């Protein structure tokens, strides 16, 4: 699914810039549509076409091959991709999810409110789940004894229903998605505990804007303008989440506006507008934290080559002081 919208007065010359998302058009993608509708891309001389994806890894090969100059992807998946494909022309240039949505979602009535509560409980985890992939590092960072936890492999469609039915005490998943799925299944919000792994010792970052490095080297001003427009789009949806949800519904009419607004608001609060971003600015990373994050990835993944943090993020396209979000 792909959509292209124009906004504002067309400039004398505009550059078409295809943008590959990680997932379908839902609340957290609202900022990119706001950047279209409110003219931020047009002001940068860009005509951006947004294409939906099929998962956090999906955009990386698209950008690495040059099929798309820019994309949105999980930086942890990017680290592994670059390890398996040395020299691939792709890197992250703007951090969007300062905190990844990797979470343990439990029910307080089943005894799960904090990480240590998982001990002695049954945890439902889909084997391909991104949050489950980080569980070993999370368990070590949070001081959990994983040998005391019974892990029940579950499918994505049955994950939240099993928790709603009490067949498991907690599940792994993305915070904003699993929470809302449980609410839709009738679980009272006050009974749901969302344990963000990033709040309990996991240093990993989440999704970032990625670029084809060959394209970026040839068109640095385009990339800088693109990133500034995205920051403006995020500021717009932070100020008016209902507008952001409406922008999503315009591209995905089958979605529920209230649900997508809530999903957007959760992603803003938990993943984007963090205390670190409020204090330090939006878009960049802390090199020391990134070093720790790569070390934690090594607990779950065997590197084929020596990790090199300089390959995973290039902040040279960001302004000094980063972008201000409030």
Helix content: 40-55%
Give start-end ranges of low-pLDDT stretches.
3-11
Approximate strand percentage = 15-25%
- Mean pLDDT metric: 94
> Between the first and last Cα atoms, what is the distance in angstroms?
32 Å
How big is the Rg?
19 Å
| Structural class designation | alpha/beta
Question: Which shape, going by the Cα principal axes?
Answer: globular
What kind of sheet is the major sheet? 6 strands, mixed
Notes on the protein architecture:
The chain has 326 residues and is an alpha/beta fold. The strands form 2 sheets. It has a 6-stranded mixed β-sheet. Helix 1 crosses helix 11 and helix 10 crosses helix 11. The two termini are 32 Å apart. The N terminus is likely disordered.
List keywords for this structure.
five-stranded mixed beta sheet, 40% helix, globular, alpha/beta, 14 helices, 326 residues, disordered N terminus
Brief summary of the model shown:
By secondary structure, this protein is of the alpha/beta class. The protein has helices spanning 30-37, 40-43, 59-64, 75-84, 130-133, 135-142, 156-164, 175-184, 213-218, 220-239, 241-251, 257-272, 275-280, 287-300, and strands at residues 2-4, 15-20, 46-51, 70-74, 90-95, 102-107, 122-125, 150-153, 170-174, 192-196, 207-212.
């Amino acid at each position: 699914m792909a959509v292209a919208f124009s906004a504002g007065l067309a400039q004398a010359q505009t550059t078409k810039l295809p943008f590959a998302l990680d997932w379908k058009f839902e609340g957290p993608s609202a900022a990119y549509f706001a950047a279209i509708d409110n003219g931020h891309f047009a002001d940068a001389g860009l005509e951006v076409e947004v294409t939906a994806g099929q998962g956090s890894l999906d955009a990386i090969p698209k950008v690495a091959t040059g099929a798309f100059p820019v994309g949105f992807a999980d930086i942890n998946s990017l680290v592994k991709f670059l390890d398996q494909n040395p020299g691939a022309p792709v890197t992250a240039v703007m951090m969007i999810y300062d905190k990844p949505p990797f979470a343990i979602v439990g029910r307080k009535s089943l005894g799960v409110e904090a990480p240590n509560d998982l001990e002695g409980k049954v945890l439902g985890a889909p084997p391909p789940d991104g949050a489950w992939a980080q569980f070993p590092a999370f368990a070590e960072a949070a001081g959990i004894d994983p040998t005391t936890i019974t892990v029940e492999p579950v499918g994505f469609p049955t994950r939240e229903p099993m928790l709603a039915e009490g067949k498991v005490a907690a599940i792994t998943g993305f915070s904003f998605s699993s929470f809302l799925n449980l609410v839709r299944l009738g679980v009272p919000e006050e009974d749901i505990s969302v344990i963000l792994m990033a709040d309990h010792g996991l240093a990993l970052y989440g999704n970032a804007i990625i670029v084809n490095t060959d394209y970026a080297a040839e068109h640095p001003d385009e990339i800088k303008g693109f990133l500034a427009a995205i920051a403006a789009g995020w500021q717009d949806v932070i100020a008016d989440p209902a507008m952001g949800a409406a922008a999503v519904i315009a591209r995905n009419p089958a979605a529920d506006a209230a649900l997508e607004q809530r999903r957007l608001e959760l992603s803003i609060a938990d993943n984007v507008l963090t205390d670190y971003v409020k204090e330090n600015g939006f878009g960049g990373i802390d090199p020391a934290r990134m070093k720790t994050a790569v070390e934690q990835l090594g607990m779950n993944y065997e590197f084929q080559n020596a990790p090199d943090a300089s390959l995973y993020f290039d902040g040279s396209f960001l302004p000094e002081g980063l972008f201000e979000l409030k």
